[in-house]
Amino acid sequence: MSRVWWVVSFVLVAMISVVGTASAATVSYISGNELWLSNPTGTQKKKLSGPAGDGRVWTEQAQADNGKIVAVRREPGKIVQLNSFTLFGPAGAVLQEGSLTHENGWTNYAYPVSLDLTDDGVAVYGFSNYNPTFPVWTFNRGTYVRTVEKPFILQPLEITDWEWPTLYRDRLVATQGQQIWLQSPGEGRPFAPEPDVGFLIVPDGYTINRTDVSANGKVIGLELNYNTIELYSVTGVPDVTPSGETIVNPGGCVLPTQGEASHITVSQDGKDIAWEDDRGVVSAGVPDFAGADPCNLTRQPVVLAANGKYPSIGNATLSTGGGGGGGGEGGGVAAPVPTVPAKVKAAGLKKGIWITVKVAKAGKVA
Questions:
Q1: Is the omega angle on the peptide bond into residue 151 within 30 degrees of 0, that is, cis?
Q2: Who's near 219: CB < 8 A, 6+ residues apart?
Q3: In what order do the strands lie in the sheet with 26-31?
Q4: What's the mean pLDDT when you consider all of the chain?
Q5: Residue 350 pLDDT > 50
Q6: Cross-strand bridge partners of residue 131
Q7: Are 5 and 201 in contact (CB under 8 A)?
């Protein structure tokens, strides 16, 4: 199938080599009304928090590169102005609690539409507010930026018209129309002016829902049309526009998901991914970017939580000696995956053929 991106600068380069082993990253997610952590293979898990309490439920969460986690809770069916948050440290200690805030002047508020967190406790979250004034409704969409770790800045910085915010390190990544932009390096980010560095352009006919760029700048995931995730190998995240430095390598592909897919998250070292689809929270290795479409993943998908949602990858601490299971009835090691040659000549059958079998870890293959 044809690819759905245009880029600031596109050149053909050698494919990157990815080893099919999981990184030391940690996937955080919501399962039922609890917060959980898991390693990418689902063999080690830890409950971060039980039910939200006070009639509230955990609704969204995000993990910083260094393992801090901000989790949002509210009463089902209540207005979002009652959003509360808890900030957890990398080892699970509660660092701060409070309420997410918004700019005044609107009748109805919807946030966080997207959520991410810097290492030093600055949250970026999308909003979609409106005034239902007959006969014309007025809408206001964009990004809020505010601290969730002391010292507090309670009133958020509003960046209008830049939607679906995520972070590349501490630089805001956001979309506007069919374009993906990010903030240039500099003091104050993500408390900085609107994104000013062009990254990618998506052709008409596609809706950008969200993006995620690995902290090492080598992998980007795109959510398109509310049901599709695509992954690309990237060389050189731009610092200025025009950059002439952004390279989207060949071999981009569509992630093999089930049903509606969302919340793509990429590990900091660009080795692991996690997302949410009809199975729950799913983790896998990144694609090999060798040209297969759908993606040929370097580690086969594992369901971490069958009722899970809102995954985010960072470096939170998992307790030693933990086991699989729990966390929404997910977990376990992926089954061995054989790779058979696409073409076999009859003469070759006399000598036999090589079949490669990929396993998650050393040991007896059942």
A1: yes
A2: 213, 231, 232, 233, 234, 266, 270, 273, 286
A3: 45-49, 34-38, 26-31, 308-314
A4: 84
A5: no
A6: 138
A7: yes
- Number of alpha carbons in the 13 Å side-chain half-sphere of residue 29: 33
pLDDT tens, residue by residue, 89-135: 999 999 999 999 888 888 888 899 999 999 999 999 999 988 888 78
| Tens-place pLDDT, residues 268-299 | 999 999 999 999 999 999 999 999 999 999 99
Cα dihedral 60, 269, 145, 114 sign: negative
User: Residue 319: which of 133, 92, 141 has the closest Cα?
Assistant: 92
In the structure, how many helices (H) and strands (E) does the chain have? Answer: 0, 28
- pTM confidence score: 0.83
Cα 139 from Cα 133, distance rounded (Å): 10
Instruction: Judge whether 29 and 280 are in contact, CB under 8 Å.
Output: no
Name the burial class of residue 213, with classes exposed (0-12), middle (13-18) and buried (19+) by CB atoms within 10 angstroms of its CB.
buried
DSSP output for 184-238? PS-TTTTSSSS--EEEEEPPTT--EEEEEE-TTSSEEEEEETTTEEEEEEEE---
